[in-house]
Amino acid sequence: MMAVVKAFDWSYVATVASEGNYGEKGIEAFKNLTRDTDICIATSEVIDRDAKDSDVEQVVQYLNETKARGVLVFASERDTKRLLSAVQRLNLVGRFHWIGSDDWGNKYTAVENHPEAAEGAITLSHSAEQDKGFKDYFLSLNPYEQITETSWLLEYWETTHNCRFIDHPHRVRRDTNASEIRTPTVSLATTEARVCEGTERLTAETFQHEGKVPFVIDAVYAFAHALDSLHTDLCNGTKGLCPEMQDIDGAVLLEYVNKTTFDGKSGRVRFNQFGDRPGSYQLYQYRRTNDGSFAYVPVGTWTDELVLNGSLLHWGQFGEHIPESVCADPCEPGLMTQKVTGDKCCWVCVRCEQNQILEDEFTCTNCSEYTKPSTDKSACVKIEGEYLRWNEAFAIVPAVLSFFGICSTLFTILVFLKYQDTPVIRASGRELCYVLLAGILLTFVSPVIILAPPSEIVCGIRRVLLGVPLVVSYSALFTKTNRVYRIFNSGKRSVKRPQYTSPTSQIVICSLLVSVQIIGTAVWLILKPPGVNRNQPEWNRVILDCTVSDLAEVTSLVYAMFLVLLCTIYAFKTRKMPENFNEAKFIAFTMYTTCIVWTAFIPIVVGTSSTDFKIQQCLLSLSVVVSASVTLCCIFVPKLYIVLLAPHKNRKKPGVTLNSRIQRSVGDSMDSRVNNGDAKPSRPMPSIGPMSYTASSEVDLKEEDSCDSDDDFIRRPTHDILQALNSMDSTRV
Fold first, then answer.
1. How far apart are CA 125 and CA 127, in angstroms?
2. How much helix, strand and coil, in percent to the nearest 5, is found in the chain?
3. What's the whole-model pTM score?
4. What is the number of alpha carbons within 13 Å of residue 662 lying toward its C-beta?
């Protein structure tokens, strides 16, 4: 039975035994064999001798509560039949797969009336050939010819022929003292049973050869051979029973029995050191045949090892597939088998953690950094790094805006180059305008680098373009506003030209301001070389980004923000200067807007760093684009409008026309000098014409007094404006 369980690969079985030595000892022996195997006993049930049908049903219920489908039955024929009957009553046909002991064997009486419940059962029967002599003798028996004091032949006859003896002289009736008499399979108490006449005959069709008959014959012969050997040794050839054999010790006789060896009806008879005869069994499966009936089909043998013909097996609803009898199904790929405490055959399937692989059947192991489990949890695979790709919305929007900004800046540069000799362009300070346009162009280019896939080169360029273009732009604006402020502020105190107001000086000042950012960025690159950081915020995600913190990025913009603050201050101070001489209101609006943008940028970027890196990079790019767009629109769009759409305002006019603010500013300055004796009017001041609101040029000059730039004009008030003031009458002044 153990060999059959192993052959079917069953690891979880239940047992049922009849009360007594046969059943309970048999199951105990089976349990001993399972101790060194992976086979577990789900439950062991015992059918008591006086068990009622309800007790047997309770046993079946206990079996059904387990996960075991294979059940070993070490029970008597009677208990086996009651067990199958209970299964059928409880509608559990097909739930169990039986392995029956030799007492079940190939007996049809054990499965009578319950063939479906027993379908697929594997049963054992001692392997032996039928004894022809016994069969012929048994078939010749007749209850009227063989008069006996026992009732077994009468009972067998009545059961086989379904009849009842009425007047047989030796018929023994059942009473309370006949507890050994077997209950007939066919009820004889019914009035419908016909009377046995004795003319019935036993035939080969009605006769079922008991499988143990050859073993009974061999058992008798074993004692005969043992007595013969004992007689030979004790009686020295004397025939008959000699005195030495009158009182035989049973232990001595047992020794002779164990030494007996002969060829018997059941095969070779011999005994091992334990006094047991090596088993030899025929295996049957009770199954449905081709004609729809049930029969015991030989499927294998066992002597020293199991020989099983699997092609002959059939399991009813399971077909030819051997049913399973396990405590738990094998775990699916990727699930760990976790044993249940105290039960080596039961387990639960546990899913490994998200970042773990199944190292073996019982162990989950964490994947290393930057790797994740494969789909089947069999290996760790490298996680592809995430970065903002060009086909994503967070990159498309700032990239498109940056493209339009680059195109607009290049268009502005081309216009300035083409019309650089016109009054508007010359009067706007061409040198600083080109520096400012270069900074704006680089600012529009920086989002392209910010959105590019991270690499050491890209990260290095990103550090440079994040701050340097802004510093170039705001250095130019700061230089421009500071120059205008110094010129008009010093004009109130002295007619002497302020220092460092020439174009060359302005470029040098602007370059020095920019060099501070360049040096700082260079030191940063040396102390902290650029690189790509692999950040793993989640077990299955790796984000590629430059090895720079949010704080470092913000710090790199501190100098640019400082220049923005200075530009804003000077723009505010020059807000009342003459419109014809400076761009104060446009620069002021640019600085106010820039301050708002960058004030909002810092908390937004820091706040989104833990949310989504794509949003952060998108917002950073948009902030840069907006900052550059504001500067480009506020500073250069008015000039482009005059140059391209209002060319009549971009012409030199005859005469010098000063607006009221210049008049008031210069007049106040000159009054102070006349009163102090610093200057005396020598000639009348030309008539002051109406105020000019031309925002394109800083001054309208006569053809012969035209200036090459606004700086040329600033140098002229020292002589020309003073002469004009000398010619003015007191009322005009």
1. 6
2. 45, 15, 40
3. 0.54
4. 26
